[in-house]
Amino acid sequence: MGRAPCCDKNDLKKGPWTPEEDLLLTNYIQTYGPGNWRTLPKNAGLQRCGKSCRLRWTNYLRPDIKRGKFSFEEEEAIIQLHSVLGNKWSAIAAKLPGRTDNEIKNYWNTNIRKRLLRMGIDPVTHAPRLDLLDMSSILRSAIGTVNPSFLNLQGLLGAQALMNPEFFKLAATATLLSLKNHENASNLVSQVQQQFNNNAGNGQVQNQVAAPNQFQTPTLSNNNVNNGLSSISPENSSIPSYLGENNYQLNAQQINQVDLLLDPELEHYLNSINQNIGHESVTPLSTPTSLNSSSTYVNSCAEEERDTYCSDVFKLEIPESLDISDFL
DNA sequence: AAGTCACGCAACCGCTCGCGC
DNA sequence: GGCGCGAGCGGTTGCGTGACT
């Protein structure tokens, strides 16, 4: 037996509510209370389904509804609550006085979710998206596909923001190797990825995936990301001799590429780069805040600032130069 | 100025749950 | 225990609006 409709849908109005309908509904509820939603529309003189009346009241007309933009505190609470409760919008709304489940759901889908995706956070699991950290994708973005001379070092530098240092070092190694090995950059990707996987097996990258409130990755300032190679070449460090310009024609077979990963000269160079582009420009991180904590952020901040703020829960950014559209 | 596109929001739809008979 | 019903919830849709070309 089919389920009976919640109400007789014949001659019932649908679509946006008019001010007159709002007034009728508000007056009735303020006088008699909501009572039975099924019979309410008839008693209130509305040509609406009871369900529609309930939604209109709970999502829009209720006097205790807070309207306007979500504050940082509210946004932070939503993210934290969502990480615990999932898509239990009503449960989340219950923790945010004046906000409705529908409003929170809409805000999540139109703002927070997109922002998390842009930050490389899976909005469902609240964990960093491992597919975004895929070595091949990052390195293809960084190295480019045609000629190492066109390699996107800027992309690689940006990519550092979402890698752990070991990972970045390997990626940088691949890039530098590509400088001297014009033949097949994608092979290098495979080789370095293999090396990375080996390291991962040794537990060297286990901190790459952490609980949301533990995951913190330094952010890069635009200044550093936008600078070219010259800006990141540390004064106190030189490119290893075998990577110098005059050695571009060096036969790749002359160098054991895996051994290069252990080369002190290269390591020193990479560490210097690391210091130059990373540590000096790292955005100070605050400790994760609890729901009860008071935030120091003010509500009037611009949207861009909010993006940078990224909530204390997520300190991960995808650089502009890294095209993540394929993953979304 | 007109057309197109993207976005945000309100509302709807279908399903599940809980309660009373 | 089964059934009907009301209420609530989460996913989806459609419209209005502003930005962009």
From TrEMBL:
Residue stretches spanning the membrane: none
GO molecular function, one term: DNA binding
Domain Myb-like: 9-61, 62-112
UniProt feature coiled coil, ranges: none
Primary location recorded for the protein, binned into one broad class: nucleus
Recorded GO CC terms: nucleus
Domain of life the protein comes from: Eukaryota
Keywords for this protein: DNA-binding, Nucleus, Repeat
Database matches in Pfam families: Myb_DNA-binding (PF00249)
Entry keyword Cytoplasm: no
Keyword S-adenosyl-L-methionine: no
InterPro entries noted in UniProt: Homeodomain-like_sf (IPR009057), Myb_dom (IPR017930), Myb_TF_plants (IPR015495), SANT/Myb (IPR001005)
Domain HTH myb-type: 9-61, 62-116
Subcellular location field: Nucleus
Gene3D superfamilies for this protein: Homeodomain-like (1.10.10.60)
Originating species: Glycine max (Soybean)
Designated name of the protein: MYB/HD-like transcription factor
Gene: LOC100812189
